[in-house]
Specification:
alpha+beta; Aminopeptidase; seven-stranded mixed β-sheet; two-stranded antiparallel ribbon; 4 helices; 9 strands; globular
Length: about 200
Amino acid sequence: MNKETDKNEIFLRQAEAEDISAIRQLLNLCYREDKGWTNEADLVGGIRITQAELASIIANPKHYLFVYPKTTTGTRAGQETGELLGCIAVEMKNDTGLGRQAYIGMFAVHPELQGQGVGHVILEAAETFAQRHLKNNDQPSRLTMSILSHRPELLAYYQRRGYQLNGNKMPFPDDGNNGEPKRQDLELLELEKIVRDEL
């Protein structure tokens, strides 16, 4: 992979069923293996997501799963190789009494590209997409996401991008579909960012 990534060449397209295997591979690499700074290997073991879950997400019209494909030239003009360098999901929520809301999840950047600003470009693109879909001049939009507790460096990353803890939390789901927690006190903490329409 390139040592430095040209941020102007980072692009996203909507995921298709043919991408499921590559998405699963990327998510497991980024979250479950001890590589890169975003992994959860010391907190959660096992798989990050099942193929059935990914298929359900891709088929859901309220869910938008985007991928950043690797190409033969490292540019948008190149031919896709089948490998993915990043992904991110945006789920549109109906009005929940808390305003218009989008949930951002499955955010991953290949470990070899971490620390080069790739994640910032991908997150910003997902936020812009969510804002445009939630646009309502009468009330602001809420962007939410969940992170694992005991990840202060990840919390700091999102706080620098305008997200704040909102007090909502839940125990890590112990259903085996998203891995097995390695500690009993593991929780999912919700972050939110209030976005005013300026687009």
